[in-house]
Amino acid sequence: MSFRFSAVFLATSALLTVSNAFADSYPTGLPNSWNENPTPPMNLLAPKGAAVQANTHTTTAAPMYAGSTMETNSAAPSLRPLIAIGAGMAFTNSVGDSEYFAATGAPGYGEYYDYNPKSNMQTKGLIDLMAGVEWVFNPNWALQAGLGYNQIGTYTAKGTLNQGFVPESTVAYSYQYNIAMQSLLIESKLLYTLNNNPRMHPYVSFALGGARNKAYAFETSVNPAVTSTRNYEGNTKNSFTYAAGLGLDVDVTTHTRLGVGYRYADLGRVELGDANVNGVPVSGTIDQRRLHANEALAQFTYLF
Asked: How far apart are CA 286 and CA 177, in angstroms?
């Protein structure tokens, strides 16, 4: 856990360093007053040499952050389409779940099977893509919403299979299978603009949708000559998934942002397919009801 938060901290520090390099080109700060009297523009339609009367009425200026992606003046609409591309790492030590099967019911067989997963930290790459809109509904607040796609590298569930007729005759074997995960999500992000540095946008995020989890390539260390062990087909399971997180986005230009964040994800259900013993179908399968992961993510956002 300390490694994951250290990685996020270092990424945030690097992001702030890059952001500060743009500070001179993109000044920060709020106007001194929401009600200003700007210098009246020159009347380009007045005859040459004619006196131009100053406009002395008070103009209420729209809130604006110079150089920020969240400018809310007339030149920057409050509703903006966006695309976001993210990449990072997903960490989990909960791949696989325990299963116990008594006598298989297959003719001539009466063994039991006890599957115990091995708990080990696995780290896989991930990509996260989103297309949506951002709504600046307040000088300090904006809401993003859109459709996202998430994919994580292949996890491998590993463990020990204890197999035998009675405890005294139990033999321990190893087993493993692969898990590939894809998700289609409705993603949202609530951003806050700091008053003392309006290029900085801390945020909280939430996403929910459907996961498509494939479990496949089951194998054991059982000698092929032993025909009484269980084998499993591959299977793809559609499941509900959600994620929640927090992070920091920083303006690079008036159209682009870079960000880093942390996200907790419930990746849904994982389930192998039909089981058989020496080709004879048997009931039951290896099933993990929920697979969870912690994710560290860097993201690039472009606002149109």
From this structure: 10
Higher pLDDT, 5 or 216: 216
DSSP 175-232: EEEEEEEEEEEEEEEEEE--SS-TTEEEEEEEEEEEEEEEEEEEEESS-TT-TTSEEE
- CB contact at 8 A, 238 and 212: yes
Q: Per residue in 252-268, pLDDT tens?
A: 999 999 999 999 999 99
Task: Report how far residue 177's alpha carbon sits from residue 72's, in angstroms, rounded to the nearest whole number.
Answer: 52
59 in Cβ contact with 38 (< 8 Å): yes
- The DSSP H or E segment spanning 106 is none
CA dihedral 267, 123, 83, 28 (to 10 degrees): 120
* CA 168 vs CA 117, 162, 171, 230: distances in Å: 22, 11, 9, 20
CA dist., res. 207 & res. 186, Å (int):
6
Q: Which residue has the tokens 């062990």?
A: 229
pTM, to two decimals: 0.73
Of the candidates 201, 180, 199, 172, which has an alpha carbon nearest to the alpha carbon of residue 189?
A: 201
* Domains, the chain: 2-303 (2.40.160.20)
